[in-house]
Specification:
Elements: H1 2-19, H2 33-60, H3 70-112, H4 119-124
Helix pairs in contact: 2-3
Length: 134
């Protein structure tokens, strides 16, 4: 009998939760030019971070065995496969970040009514501003 009372109490508490809830709102996003430029920069910064990880991962896949015995060779091959897998993972993520930056850059270019800019080329040019010795 005590179990039914407990069950009824839970049902009473939850009934208001399910019946008094407002419908979920539809989502929307609004970005201004500065927001979109910041988003592009953030995606490119993240891509840079992944690019540094790619460099480190390449080294992870080039381990030399400490000896020529079976165990050393086996573990070295496994470690190198793991390093190669990790390199592929971070390259994939780096490329994803660049694609996301490009999508936001395209949206920004459309918003501004200008020709689309390639973020890869833009990113390679380095920081903008005064150059020493010019």
């Amino acid at each position: 009998m005590g179990g039914n009372t407990h069950h009824d109490n839970i049902n009473a508490q939850l009934s208001g939760f399910f019946t008094n809830q407002t419908p979920p709102a539809t989502g929307s996003y609004a970005f201004d030019e500065a927001d979109m430029r910041a988003i592009v920069k953030n995606w490119l910064d993240l891509a840079d971070s992944y690019d540094k990880s790619v460099t480190n991962a390449v080294r992870m896949g080039r381990i030399k065995p400490p000896a020529e015995d079976f165990a050393s060779l086996f573990h070295t091959k496994a470690a190198n496969r793991s390093g190669e897998s990790y390199r592929e993972y971070v390259e994939h993520n780096r490329d994803y970040c660049v694609r996301q930056a490009q999508l936001f850059q395209d949206a920004l270019d459309d918003y501004l009514g200008v020709e689309h800019t390639n973020v890869t080329e833009m990113h390679k040019t380095g920081p903008q501003g005064p150059q020493g010795g010019v």
